[in-house]
Amino acid sequence: MKWTKTLIQTLRDNPQDAEIDSHKLLVRAGLVRKVAGGLYSYMPLGMRSLRKVQQIVREEMDRAGAQEIVMPILQPAELWKTTGRWDTMGANMFKLKDRGDKAAALGPTAEEEVTDLIKGVVSSYRQLPVTVYQIQWKFRDETRPRFGLMRSKEFLMKDAYSFDVDAEGADKNYWTMYHAYERIFERCGLKAVPVQADGGDMGDSMTHEFHVLADAGEDGIAWCEKCGYAANLEKAERMPSAVATGAECGPVEEVATPNAKTIEQVASFMGLPADCFVKSLVYVADGKPVMVCVPGDRDVNEVKLKRFLGAKQVVLADNSTVLSATGANAGFVGPVKPANSTLRIVADVSLKGATGRIVGANKDQFHLKNVDLARDTKLADADFSDLIVCGAGDRCPKCGAPMALKRGIEVGQVFKLGTKYTSAFKAMYKTDDLSERVMIMGCYGVGVSRTLQAVIEQSHDKDGIVWPASVAPYQVVIDLLDPSVPEVAKVAEELETALESAGIDVIVDDREERPGVKFKDADLIGFPVRVVVGAKGLSNGGVEIKRRCDDKSKTVVTPPQDALAAITTALA
């Protein structure tokens, strides 16, 4: 392929809206072009890499026994209403109506759609197990799309779904896909780490996310260097520490704290550290208010709270709800005698047995000190649980060692879904005695377009992208320095033909540009191997071969007849 016959446009300046390196390089290297917020066109170079990621995913799915299908991105509302997710998926689901006034959505995922499909096809245990997958565009109406393809509205995803007769089969499929994901990301040149995770709206009994560790990652991960425990902060647990009970309590005393609402403001006003306080927040769980108490220097983990309460939806209460439930405005509420005596109160396990704490007085502009949670509140043993976001230094739940916090880019996730969707759709199979049972389901997603950018985020330098050969748009660039010299053109053409015959992707930079311009573009786009063919080089013994990941000192000169073997070795 000749550069002059290809639609490639590189940029010298970073796009103004790009915040992270991979987003900048995607645009500067001419892989994508922005259409609108969260919407991108893939240019020829970007499409070549995207297809290579797809092909790796497809090969590993086929190897794992999955069968490829494709389903519509436009999904009827009736499917989502069957599981109730039409009302719970939130504003990210893009809903619309057709000319017949029938409601539908642009699919953000496809559990309902595939379950309905399999229900209509599978009726006997003899047809199970079965795993199907698709590589299809998805749409989520992100409030604030950012980071390029990392959080875009439209994205390419591989989603696979397994259907089994029993839990043992479902478990086998789960780990088959887990190991397939390990191979996928390794082949893409990524160092992806599996971490324990929460299934969110998917519903799950077990799930792992695969994360590419990067400072630009949007997800926090609790990481134990000692035993390898890793979990998304939504899921991460910690080993409870001994309760810091504080000083022996005298009687509860009311303290005026004018205009001090936040923990920081009250702590500053009273001259005490934040961990002397109890942070009390009112949430609404499935329509009912509940007060949540955590140490003053920690934050509520809403995912853990939702699980502990067994709620479908948990949101912060508005101020009128807070006032009605406690008798005070937000910032002055606490667990001691709220206005609504039936208000449920729950607390983080680290507060169990705590004394000498400061809490909101349920009276505007006032707090209470000398609070003994066992003595002064109605909290019972069953009201305590792990409800906070893990922090650096918290003890690992497996080995007790201090944990570190890392950032990760989620590129894939595997779920055990059980019967949540198959029960809703009555997706049954008949056993050998003709009785009916519900199929057991699993779900496995890879963010294909996100994986493309994650490779760049993990593999780049100050000059541009450093592609792994497996997903590079072209594995080799031949920089033709003297295209008008017959001997030079002949060597370049013969080398191009030899590389293509060997199954190696190659592009020849035949532009009438200075060598420096060609070298800069080659480094920016990140071709794994650069070959320089020029009159001066040939007179000095051959062609120059340099790997993108090496510095200039490792450039080697090879006779043209040996160049193919040298390039093949460089790509290995």
Output mean pLDDT: 93
Radius of gyration: 29 Å
Q: Helical percent range?
A: 25-40%
Please tell me what the overall shape is.
Answer: globular
Helical stretch tally: 16
* Number of β-strand runs: 31
Structural class determined from secondary elements = alpha+beta
Unreliable sequence segments: none
Strand content: 25-35%
In whole angstroms, how far apart are the ends? 22 Å
The largest sheet, given as strand count, sense and whether it forms a barrel, is: 9 strands, mixed
Give a topology summary.
Elements (H helix, E strand, L loop, with lengths): L20 H8 L3 E5 L2 E4 L1 H20 L3 E2 L5 E3 H7 L1 H4 L5 E4 L5 E4 L4 H9 L10 E10 L14 E11 L2 H21 L4 E5 L9 E8 L5 E5 L6 E3 L20 E4 L6 H8 L7 E8 L2 E8 L6 H8 L4 E3 L2 H8 L17 E5 L8 E4 L5 E6 L1 H4 L7 E2 L18 E15 L1 H5 L3 E3 L5 E3 L1 E8 H11 L1 E2 L2 E2 L10 E5 L5 H16 L4 E4 L5 H11 L3 E5 L1 H5 L3 E5 L8 E3 L4 H9 L1
Parallel strand pairs: 3-7, 15-17, 17-20, 27-28, 27-29
Antiparallel strand pairs: 1-2, 4-6, 5-6, 7-8, 8-24, 9-10, 10-21, 11-12, 11-21, 13-19, 14-15, 14-16, 18-19, 21-24, 22-23, 25-26, 29-30, 30-31
Helix pairs in contact: 1-12, 2-6, 2-12
